[in-house]
Structure formats: structure tokens, C-alpha cells
Amino acid sequence: MARRPSSPLVLCGVVCTMLGGVPRAAAAQESILLRYNPQPGAWVRQIWWSEVTSTILDEGGGKGDLSVEAVGVQSITSRVLEIDDNRRVLEVTRDSLRARVRQFGGIWRTSADTSGPKPSAQLVVDDRLRVTDLRAPAGVSLSRRHRETLRAFAAGFELALPEQPITVGQTWSADVIYPIDEPLGVEDEPDIATWFSRWDDIVARSTFQLDSLVPRGTDTLAYLRVQGRFVPATIAPPAELSAGRARLDGTFGGTLIWSTSWNAFVSGAVRSLVGMTAFQGPPEQERPAFTLRLDIISRLQVRL
Questions:
Q1: One-character DSSP codes across 189-214
Q2: For residue range 239-248, what is the model confidence (pLDDT) as tens digits?
């Protein structure tokens, strides 16, 4: 059985109280090469909590505005099946998803994802967490949203660890792929659902910084700060633009803690602000239909 690392500082009280104080780096170690080098059989279970406020602004004056709150929790387990040179073959499974949703001032409705087998896939990554392949089990078809969730198992979004060693205070730039997979509470709204089905990967130009390193015996915790801005994207029906289009943009920022003993992000907190405006009609005659604004707070913690 793979050795389980000790719990890292109770995971810093959910990232030092949501992006607050970060422990000071130990003077003896001021640089680190971040790599994903687990042992075969090692596994990690990550719990994600989310709080989402979704606001739909009716730009056309038909249905009126709508604001919805959603809170959710999901569990994702990754297990190392095989290591071959720079290939790490993992089985990644979303164990559970539960959510509560309400309109502002309304009654909470509780739901759980219990339909069918748990979404699972074999994921192939390298030592920088770059995804090279994802395979669903034989005879199973994963939805786009499930595929994005499983690809983003490491930090809630898909990212590559830096190529070179980094020193405390150093920044580096990278693109991340950011799935919006939290329960939003508006997925079943007819207009919203139509545009959700057309979303591709959301790419964010991002800047990372190593805030501090905290050696703890055989483990070292690397405190990382990240800020990103989504590349503005136009979403359109596959056939033509005459049916309208949508414009998507936004920002996100947060803190992540990488543990060299766990070979994983063991704690984190990220806030994302996303906006999407949908337009009706061909480009020369288009008019705004509605605007969707998302305010998403996500927290991560590993569990034994």
C-alpha cells in the first residue's frame, strides 16, 4: 500500500483564511523544482466546495432579471495506475456531487448526482501535469463537462508546473484551461443551457508567483498565488451567426498549496468572475438578449 503523507498543517485553515496571511519561507530553502512524481498506487482525494452567485440580466426586457445562489461540494479521487518514463497513467473519478440552489430569498432545493456510474477516466500526464490523453471506460461516453472536470483534477483547472526551478518571490506566466464545472443553479434555464452546450475550453492568460516555501521534515509546502484573465471568446452556433452569438470574458485569482510529499495541491482557494453576454440576430442587426454574471468562490482540501 502506498504511504499516506501526514496532514499538512490542517491544510493552513483553508489557505490561511481565504488568501490571507501566508507563512514566511524558511531561510534554508529559497527555491524549488515543482514536479509530479508520485509512486504507483498512490492516491489522493480532493474535496471542492463552491459558492456561486449567478445573475441573469434580461437585456431584451422580456423575462426580467434573475439571481440564484448555489452551494456545492464534490469529491474527486486520483489513483496512479502506472509510471513509464515521463508518463503517469491515472484513474480519476468524481466520487460525488451535491448541491443546494435557491433564488434570492427563496427556499433551498437540494440535489445529488446519483444518475448512473460515477464519471471516471484514465488520464495520462507528464511530470509537469500536462495532459496528453484522456480515455473513458469502454462503452462509456463522458459529457464535455465531465471530461473537463476530470482533466482539471489537480487544481480545479488544467495547468502545467513551471519548467525551471523557481525561487521565492519569482513570477512566471502560463496559460491555464479553466472549466466552469461548479453547480450554478441556472443550468436548466433554456437560454443559458443552449449557450452552455456550445462552450469550448476557456483559456486564461495567467501569472503565478511563489510566495513562500515551508519545509516540514520530508515534506515541503509551496505557497503559490495565481491571477488570470480569460481570453475573450465568441461563442456561436456551428452553422451560422444568424442565430446570434455570445461573448465570454472574466478574471480569476487565488492561492494554492503544493505538497512535495503528497505530490498534489493539498489546499486552495480561488475566486472567479465570469461574464457572458448573448446577442440575437445576424451581426449587422444583432441586439443584446441577456447577460450572465457568475461570482464563484471555490475551496480545495485533500482528505484521507
A1: SHHHHHHHTT--PPEEEEEEEEEEEE
A2: 555 567 888 8
